[in-house]
Amino acid sequence: MEILFVCSGNTCRSAMAQTLARDWLKRHGVGMRVRVFSAGISAYTGEEATDGAKNAMRTRGLSLDTHRARMLTREIFDAADLVLCMTQGHKQAILQVHPNDKTFTLNEYAGVGGYVDDPFGMSDAVYEQCAGQLEDLVDRAMERACHAL
């Protein structure tokens, strides 16, 4: 199974979600059967994760130091079995170009209302809050996605 996390620039939310999901897979021993990756609908390919995102992951013992942003392409989309977006806007942008039944917001797939606010340009405290929200949502989503494995 291949899971794709999508946000705008692939330097904050989807990058952190990817890192948290990979950690979840490692802790639950299913990493060999699931691949997790991320992209942005308006990303500048090659851009590093933001310092706020790096710091939020570092406090959790994880690293975004080698992360580089990727623009969402048809090839990346086609490789995914499940696409989890940070907002309804991201989901709608994908569905307009690629009508499908594999794209959800992370919140709806996790069974929680709302969406994940963009911390870009905000304080480390806002990034921490976002990372905490993502931890909960990613845990729920990964549990659901990997339940049948």
Automatic annotation (TrEMBL):
Keywords: Hydrolase, Protein phosphatase. GO terms for molecular function: protein tyrosine phosphatase activity. The lineage of its organism: Bacteria, Bacillati, Bacillota, Clostridia, Eubacteriales. Residues 1-144 form the Phosphotyrosine protein phosphatase I domain. PANTHER family: LOW MOLECULAR WEIGHT PROTEIN TYROSINE PHOSPHATASE (PTHR11717), LOW MOLECULAR WEIGHT PROTEIN-TYROSINE-PHOSPHATASE ETP-RELATED (PTHR11717:SF31). Signal peptide: none annotated. Belongs to the low molecular weight phosphotyrosine protein phosphatase family. This is Low molecular weight protein arginine phosphatase. The active site is at residues 7, 13, 118.
